[in-house]
Design a protein that fits this description.
- By secondary structure, the chain is mainly alpha-helical.
- It has a domain of 185 residues: Arp2/3 complex 21 kDa subunit ARPC3.
- Helix content is 70%, strand content 3%.
- The chain is built from 9 helices and 2 strands, in the order ββααααααααα.
- It has a two-stranded antiparallel sheet with strand order 1-2.
- The protein is globular, with a radius of gyration of 20 Å.
- The termini are far apart.
């Protein structure tokens, strides 16, 4: 069974791989609340497995013709654009111009395309800026989920209502991204001697309360500017960018077979 979602034909096999990758990566985010041992585990194994599953997803998409040549080219162009935009703010107080491109692209081209765009753009950006490290897996899947969620927004909304919906979505996901990044940072950040430190083997309620306090005490200076900046970019450029992307979608005729006709003399 093959379902066309945006520019990507999404089969049950591809959906299964995507689900496995997402479940593994979610486990890598939330393990501090369920781990009962006394030593911090090596959580990166979750993300190496999940990244391999995501790469397998891309291979399956291309090999099963889920991504045709035009879709691959578009994915590469948009990933390169996002990779070039991301260093402009260098993460300074949340000034990250990449998010509006990811959100608007996923809005037009669909959820599965948005997932792949989030994965590939974050990885390409890490190669470009030297940002390879244990945090990369978290960033890749956080961006992939944001792209997938943007592609799942209601399609019938249009005009000013659509821009308003994207503004709300951009503000929410800016905060969610900061929350997810703090989840991977918090267990290692404070040591074991503060009132906000992670407690190995502690109860869910105890660790969750400490994490929420840590997040709001340390990340609002990044999350709020990220949300404001993303919303400003969507507000000012959203209608024009969406129109251009939809024109590209229509003219490129994604997933339509290319037929070469020979002229016979």
């Amino acid at each position: 069974m093959m379902l066309t979602v945006g520019v990507v034909k999404f089969s049950f096999k591809n959906a299964l791989v995507l689900s496995i990758a997402s479940v593994l990566s979610i486990a890598g985010f939330v393990w501090p609340f369920f781990y009962t041992g006394q030593d911090l585990p090596r959580t990166q194994m979750f993300f190496w497995i999940a990244i391999c599953a995501a790469i397998a997803l891309v291979v399956l998409e291309i090999s099963s013709a889920g991504l045709d040549a035009k879709s691959v080219a578009l994915l590469g162009v948009l990933a390169a654009l996002i990779s070039a935009l991301r260093p402009l703010g260098a993460g300074a107080v949340g000034i990250e111009p990449m998010w509006f491109v990811l959100i608007l692209s996923a809005r037009v081209f669909g959820a599965s395309f948005g997932f792949l765009l989030g994965i590939t753009s974050m990885f390409a950006s890490a190669l470009l800026t030297g940002g390879l490290g244990p945090w990369l897996g978290y960033q890749m899947f956080a961006a992939a989920w944001i792209g997938m969620a943007a592609g799942l927004l209601p399609k019938r909304v249009s005009g000013k209502s659509e821009i308003l919906m994207l503004l709300v979505f951009g503000a929410l996901t800016a905060g969610i991204f900061g929350l997810l990044m703090d989840l991977q940072f918090w267990p290692w950040a404070l040591g074991g001697n503060t009132q906000l430190s992670y407690i190995p083997g502690g109860s869910i309620a105890q660790n969750f309360g400490r994490f929420i306090t840590f997040h709001f005490a340390s990340s609002m200076a990044w999350d709020i500017p990220r949300a404001i900046f993303t919303c400003l970019l969507i507000s000012f450029t959203g209608p024009a960018v969406l129109s251009a992307l939809r024109r590209t979608y229509t003219r490129a005729a994604f997933s339509t077979p290319v037929v070469f006709n020979e002229r016979v003399k």
